[in-house]
Design a protein that fits this description.
The chain contains 6 helices and 4 strands. Helix 4 packs parallel to helix 5. The chain is an alpha+beta fold. It is 44% helix and 13% strand.
Length: 174
């Protein structure tokens, strides 16, 4: 038998309809979020093959996420809380972390001492914290030796990447 819906029926059931519609939207939203979460678990290690980033199984991911600002200029955001916020509220899948190495070193002086060259312990601590948080949130992280004149800092680059590869190289997230 057919049901006839009139304005009175809709009005008297509008709260129920709103609740049902809200539940449907929440479910769809949660499914979208869940599909964006666990991205590293889904794709695993990413490789560059013929200029294309892809998984070891040949799947090409579409990833979204921001870059933090240079560590020397925005150290208050280089922490677990920021990564958690970006992963949970922005649903990012990848985060770039540009470690400030020695800004201005080509001019024989740096314009900021909050960098790897002058403060290696704190700089590495900050990078470790954001990389660890990215792994906990199952998102990819790009570790960036960010220096405009990196060619004059080869020993620092070797130290940095040896440290990062020893500490984080086993994780597909990096």
């Amino acid at each position: 038998s057919a049901h006839i819906i009139n304005a009175n029926t809709i009005e008297s059931h509008s709260d129920s309809i709103s609740v049902v519609w809200s539940n449907i939207l929440d479910t769809l939203s949660n499914q979208q979020i869940k599909s964006r979460r666990n991205i590293v678990h889904k794709y695993g290690e990413l490789l560059s093959i013929n200029g294309t980033v892809q998984s070891a199984k040949g799947r090409v991911p579409s990833l979204c996420g921001p870059s933090l600002f240079w560590s020397c200029s925005s150290s208050k955001y280089w922490n677990k809380e920021t990564v958690n916020f970006l992963a949970n509220d922005w649903d990012i899948q990848i985060l770039r972390c540009p470690m400030s190495i020695a800004p201005g070193i080509a001019n024989k002086r740096t314009w900021n001492d909050n960098n790897l060259f002058h403060n290696p312990e704190e700089s590495l601590r900050m990078m470790d914290e954001v990389v660890s948080a990215a792994i906990e949130n199952d998102i990819y992280v790009i570790i960036d030796f960010h220096e405009h004149r990196a060619e004059i800092l080869k020993p620092e680059a070797l130290f940095f990447f040896e440290y990062m590869s020893r500490k984080w190289g086993e994780y597909d997230h990096v």
